[in-house]
Each structure stands twice: as structure tokens, then as C-alpha cells.
Records
---
Amino acid sequence: MRFLILTPVLLLAMLLAVWPEHALFTALPFPLTAWLALAFVASLALLMRQTDWLYWLAFLAGHYYAVQQGLQRPISEPAVALLYSYLPVLSALWLGFLVLLPRPPLLTKAGIALFVCSALLPVCLLYLPLPNWQDGLPDYHWLLQPVLSASPLSWLQATVLLLVVAMWLALLSYRNWPKPMLGQLAVLLCLTLFYLWLAQPELSGWATLIASSCLLLTLALQMLQLAYIDELTQLPQRRALIGHLNRLGKKSAVTMLDVDHFKKFNDTYGHDVGDQVLRLLGAILAKQRGMTAYRYGGEEFTLVFHHANPKKLKEQLEQVRQQVADYPLVVRQAGRPKDSDTGKKQRSSGQKSGGSKTVQITISLGCAIRQPGEKPEPLLKRADEALYKAKKKGRNCVVLTSS
Ligand SMILES: Nc1nc2c(ncn2[C@@H]2O[C@H](COP(=O)(O)OP(=O)(O)OP(=O)(O)O)[C@@H](O)[C@H]2O)c(=O)[nH]1
């Protein structure tokens, strides 16, 4: 789902590669469309309190202005060629800087300074004495030569862009492909496409429009996540479950699942360790095939099945129960040194710290097979009653009911 964010850039890249003379490229009234897109996404980001995106939007706006003012003439003109040499490098470096450094909240002095810098940095290039700098760099002149004769992209630009994209991809995979970073990568990719196909009509407008659309998609996915995904377990939560139950087919079943003696567990090991257990249980449930797992609330989870075969249901649920019961949970015990110095001293003197201990948890499961025409509420209620029976039976078991 998260890779949806990159779809607009990929579509633009494909169109540029396969059909660069497509009428679409000249169909929109630029620059108005690009400015409207930037203003629209900025208003939404403000409305949704996702002000972090305004740094990227400010940079996109500054960049678009610089391109409109400085890159609309033939690249054979020295001033245009110089701007073309420095603007992509500056863009890649600034976007890399924005990703890597902790960004202050917008409405602080540092935040406002960062916002203004993001917007004005590309614009400043229009007024800097670039030809003087060029004269000062004779030894590195080859860096400004094109990599390919067909594209004006220079060695310097290609190296910086490649380094920043490589850093981005490494960071993305290290951090498990978070959505915001995919949106930020989309901005860089859009600008890269623009520099690669510089001669394409209206491409600066399209690149800005597509980059704004990618940020809009990221915002939408973030909002969807806030509304539907439980932060602790990363499973969809009750609101998503209700939506799913309203679309249930004739043959389906719902299971309520609850951690046994969880209050005692919390009291013994602490609420934080209890949270870790719920996170882990969420990960185990998310991996199960043939069912969709939800966090219902507290230590209760719901599993939804799209079949009504009692034998198969029992087998699947027993498997889940067994998997959880067999899972060794490593718990840090109280008495563990709080700082590493004390820990080192304890280890060197052979003293035993609190260390960790392996414990097991169990779950009880109550499953109800859907009756013809049964509404979600009574179905959930029956699953809850089955869960209650499982608890009464002694816990760590499955109770299945079809009526
Ligand atoms: N750590 C943690 N605990 C939670 C969370 N949500 C609910 N709980 C705890 O889960 C416990 C549920 O306790 P009970 O409903 O009495 O059930 P139980 O102790 O699991 O006993 P049985 O269900 O009868 O086996 C309470 O102590 C809640 O505080 C959570 O998000 N994190």
C-alpha cells in the first residue's frame, strides 16, 4: 500500500521514456496549475496539523520559482547552463539535509528559519555570482561536463544525485520503508526527472505537480493510518473491523481472542512489558494466513475468516493458540541496572544483575460462524460469549459456536 506514494512519479517517468511527445505534457495551464497544487497540499497539511510537509512544499515552491525565472531560456546561454549545473546539486543536498536532520516544529524560531531557508535557497542561486565561482574552479571543470552527450546532466550533478538517492534508499530499507520518507523520496525523484528531461515542455510544472501529488498521497495514507491502524500493534483497529464486518460474505466467521491473566502479567512485569507482549501478539496474528487480524481494544483481538468450515476453523485457531503458547517471551526483570556503568561494574565483579527471564503467555479464543443474514453486532456478541466460555473452561483453549 505504501508504495502507492511513488506511483505518480513512476507513471511520469514511464510517459517521459515511452511517449515524450504526448499531448498531456502541454495540456495543463502552467504555471498556475503548479502553484495551485502547492497551495492546495500546503493548506491540507496545515489543516491536518502535518506541518512538517511545509518544509518540502516551501522548497518545491522556491525551486519552481527559480526554474521559472532562470531555466526557461536555452541551456546554451552561459547563465542558464550555470544555474542548471548548481540547482540540481543544491536541491539534492538540501533535500538530503531535510531528511537526515531532526526538523523543529514549524511554529518555533528554528522552524520558521528552516521554512524560509527551504523556500529562499533555490531562489538565492538566481542572484549569486555563479560565473565568478566557475572561474575559480578550473581544475574541476570536468565535473561540469555532461555524462552523456544526449543529456545535459553533468558528472557533478549525477554523482550528487546518485549519492543522495543511494543514501535515501539505504535509510529507507534501514527504517523499514516508512511512508513519510517515501513521500520525500518522491520529491527528489520528480526533480531528478525534470533535470534528466530538461528539454521536455512544461516539465518543471509537471514535476512540481507530481511531487505535490505524491506528498498529498503520503498525507492521505498518514491520515488513514491514524484513523484505522492501532499504533501499538500496527494492526487495523476497531473502526476498520466494523467496516470489514459490514462487507462480510455469507460464509464467514469471527473470533474474539483475549490474553489470559493479563492483569496479573501487567502487575508482575509492568505495563511496558505488557505493551511489548501486545506488540508481539499483534505481529504473530498479522503473519497468520487465511484470516484478518484486528486489535479490538485493550488485550482483545478479533480474527475474521472468509469461510465457515468448522473443522478448518478449529484447526486454524488451535494453530494460532499453540503458536502463542509456545512463543518464548524474553522479559527484562526488575533489578536490572538502570545505567550501563553500574551494569559493567556488576558484570566485572561477577555480581548477577536482574537480567532477563523467559516467560510464556496464553490466549483464549471464542469463534462464531455467521448465521444467514446475521448482522455484525449479534455475530460479535456470539463470538464474545464463546470467548467467555473458553475462559470458563480454564483458558488457553478454543470454543467454537455455530448457533
Ligand atoms: N500493558 C497493557 N495492558 C493493557 C492494555 N489494555 C488493557 N490492558 C490491561 O489488560 C488487563 C485486562 O484485565 P482483565 O480484563 O481483568 O482480564 P485478565 O487479567 O486478562 O483475565 P482474563 O481475561 O479473565 O484471563 C487490565 O489490567 C488492563 O489494564 C494495553 O494497551 N497495554
---
Amino acid sequence: MARKFFVGGNFKMNGTIESIKAIVKNLNEAQLDPNVEVVIAPPALYLLLVREHLKKELEVAAQNVFDRPNGAFTGEISVSQLQDSGINWTILGHSERRTILGETDEVVASKTKFATEGGVSVIWCCGESLEEREAGQTVAVVEKQLAALKAKIGDWSKVIIAYEPIWAIGTGKVATVQQAQEVHEAIRGWLKTNVSDKVAEETRILYGGSVNGKNCKELAKEKDIDGFLVGGASLKPEFTDIINSNL
Ligand SMILES: O=C(CO)COP(=O)(O)O
């Protein structure tokens, strides 16, 4: 089964009503490759606005969701609230949440379990720091993150993996095609050994970290790169070039 190419836009804590409406208008009017699944993740405050204005073929993701049902959890958003708002996706475990907000592998795994079991698909992020890469620990770090996820979830059909080396995020320092492919291949190998052939074959593995309209085409050719998770460039018109990487 061929894996459908996937491009996610992570707006992070950026945008205003006006600028986000302009991004949505641009996406609605652009000629987009119909063979690509597109999901954009605005800040929580703008989820409903985007869902209301974005054409239905494109999906909307939260950037985070909590791992409890509705209740006394000030500041959090629940899986059922996302669904109630027509939001069928969430990003989880982004390195900014792991490093700045202190989310552990276990917390991220628990949130992933809660979301997927509740019917919300997850773009699950992993990746190493510069220090870890320089110490030759890249694959070990990613495998540890994967193992924590595997300990909590049984159904991988609603999980997309995003490999985002921390040193490449927002730095303009994109991983080389070889560096990215090597880690993607290791992730697929890990899935094959530790989960199943089917999950290894079907799970999409995205690359994230300084992807732009120029470097996307080369990366997209690699056999284990099934799409991108884009930060900064998802706020710019070149996002449509990234969606159309394969054209
Ligand atoms: O963190 C990212 C996407 O989640 C990548 O961010 P940049 O594309 O801005 O490097």
C-alpha cells in the first residue's frame, strides 16, 4: 500500500485573526496536489475560525491536547472538545513542549493514547538535540521515545510520526537528505521489529526542521520520507510549494 504524502503546518504561537484568515484564503485558492493530505495547526484560540473558513478537503489540528476527560483542568483542552469543534487531529510531543513545558516521554505517550482512543489522529513528534547527535545517540534517543509510546498504545493506525531534529528547528539548518533518510529508515526498522510489518509499511514518517520551498523537493524523493511538518514556512505563501513538492 502506497503511503499518502502528508504535509502539516505548525503555526506554533504565531498569527492574528487577520494573518490566519489570509493563510486560509491562500490555501483555499491554491492549486494543491490532490494526492497530498494537508493539515494545519493554528494556536488553539483560532482552531474554530480556521475550521469554519478552511475548505473541507483540508484538515485542522490542535498543537496539544490533554489526557483526561472534561473537568477541573484549568487551561487545558479535551479530546471531546476537539471533536465537538470538528478538529480531528492534534500534534503531540513537539520538542518545544518537551523542552520548554517539561513533557516527558510518558506524558506524551499517555496523551497520544487518549487522543487516538478518542478518535483524534496524532502527529507524534520525536527527535534528538544537537548534543545527542554529536554524541552519536540520535537513533537511541528516538528509539527510547518510540518505546515509551509503544508501552502505552496498541493501535498505530491514527499515528503519524514526525522526526524533528531539535537542532534543525527554526535554525535554517536543515538535516541533509541522507541524515533525514537514515533516521527515517531506522524508525521504520524499529516499527518492523517492535510493532509489526504492517505498521512499519503503513505508518507515515514526516521530516520537520527548516523545511522550505527550496529544500523540500530533494527530501521528498527519499523512500522513507512521507511528508513534512513545517513551522516557519507554513506561515508563508511558499507553504503551497511544499505541499506540491512532488509535482
Ligand atoms: O518545529 C517545526 C514544526 O513542528 C519545524 O519548525 P521550522 O520549520 O520553523 O524549523
